[in-house]
Amino acid sequence: MTRPTDRNRLDEEESPYLRQHADNPVNWQPWDERALEAAREQDKPIFLSIGYSACHWCHVMADESFADEEVAELLNEEFVSIKVDREERPDVDSIYMAVCQLVSGGGGWPLSVWLTPEGKPFYVGTYFPKRSKRGQPGFLDLLEGLADSWETDREEIENRAEEWTAAARDRLEETPDSIGAAEPPSSEVLERAADAALRSADRQNGGFGSGGPKFPQPARLRVLARAFDRTGNDEFREVLEGSLTAMLEGGLYDHVGGGFHRYCVDADWTVPHFEKMLYDNAEIPRALLAGYRLTGDERYADYVRETLEFVSRELTHAEGGFFSTLDAQSEDSETGEREEGAFYVWTPAEVRDVLGAETDADLFCARYDITESGNFEGQSQPNLAASISELADRFDLEEREVQQRLESAREKLFEAREERPRPNRDEKVLAGWNGLMIATCAEAALALGEDHHAGMAVDALEFVRDRLWDAEAGRLSRRYKDGDVAVQGYLEDYAFLARGALGCYEATGEVDHLAFALELARAIEAEFYDAERGTLYFTPESGESLVTRPQELNDQSTPSATGVAVETLLALEDVAGEDDGFEAIATSVLRTHAGRLESNALEHATLCLAADRLEAGPLEVTVAAEEVPAAWRERFGSRYLPDRLFAPRPPTEDGLEGWLDELGLEAAPAIWAGREARDGEPTLYVCRNRTCSPPTHDVDEAIEWLAESETSGELDDDVPF
Fold this sequence. Notes:
49% helix
């Protein structure tokens, strides 16, 4: 009988990243019970390699080592080799990345970990070259040394594995001995996080940190926006605007085709790491919408529109869901080799070949820093290098003509670029990442008043719900790919998707989306909430048992799953039944982790936003109408109201009864109770902390009441609840 480890089993997987390694001579196994049992039976250590399809250094290590027969022979003989797609299995990734950070002080992908057959880590690193160079140990030497140590120093290895596992458990799973503070943290933690963001801000180049690489950090930007709104401190706004401007004008943004790359490798945002991730193209526009609402700067709205157009064009399934990533590499048209950035970079000669007209080519090159010397390996990644007024003076043209010529040039270059070999696309549809994009599309619909953004959100929500939600079991799967559904959903899948479903309800007024958000929230309580410890775990109670059960409290490349869950539970409290107790769960989690937020607020930005929301209380905008007037949606949607819940309801009590049946509620929640349409016309009720304006048919009157209450800090109690 053949053993599963006698061959490479990745050809059975749907993950594009795993399938990229299906032809390696290494006998790769997926992370499953067959592979883990084989390690135990053969008493072999596990070599665990974690990466993702758009990861540049993952490709490099694969080409250098995993495609190499000498390396493969050693791996196949001495180890059980397991390959994990971090996007499918963030639970496995979070555990071993935590170990890497604890041991080395850093991390990244590819993540290379050696484990005992029980899954306990005893050696960890990231990228290793095949042979030692520039102070890095060679992968072959490591394999030989670790294989020998497994035979000769087994006791030492197992002791180290126990110590590292205990450290990971302490960092990821444990909660304070006492269940949190007597009270949840106040809004003071928001200002503390914003102050820390100021200290870490690069005032010269924008963003955070004095050197490279530069990451977008959208959660920090949202903290700055809300802190400015709360305090009026102009420094918060200055750093927010400076960071957004740097990200928009530099190489992080694709100035020809729209959308954001993952990060920039330098301090001044010139050269990106060229992969494009769905989550960045959701969360950065979310920060831009905050900037737009605060400042009214139309540039921010324009970049949101362009980014969502890119997502619609290049990351959207024909039936509505959103794909995961575009690779950093693509085939170079001249060499035929796959190279990073080949699809995106230009030379002046290439620009002239496309545009023909010398003035147009010179204009474009001057505007976007396309030079003979280049800024990336002899070619140029477009950056905004000159303003329209500067170009008008330099070329003796009217500003309007400069803009028209540049836009015409961009369109022609975009069409020419479409003929280049394209980066690979990872066509996994992940529930959580789709939730992020759905929420942003719904917010864009409210902020910009454009219905097609709401259509994008609803189409994706329905796609994910149809394929990944098991209504009978009340369970969500994480990944859909070509008809195949896999992996139990994690907290981020439920929380991000619940927030997206709630956003769809706010943008459309359709109760079905709200019902789905409530179902997901109830599943969060059932599968992820530990009442005894007062926390939300990242993995479901019914899920696979790993060496530790992680929590996700920090913001990373995506926002904290716990933070988004708490924010969403607080928002849903207003429309849920009394028995759900969503606010009590959110309060419990914030109490438990109060010490973390108070001691290191910036690393827990999303949880700090949730703490602020809890203290500020809900801002409820109830609209009783058959259809929300477009002007009302625009007036509230375009204002910066971070705690707003836009809550349409039917105009009559009979209509509301049908909604309550669909939502599984016995009685109307306070946000709707007694708030029917008056005089047969659409009627507005604006409420803060259960104290409301008089019902009105005039949106300006409601806005004026809200502005006065926020300025004075005193609420009109004409209609108390």
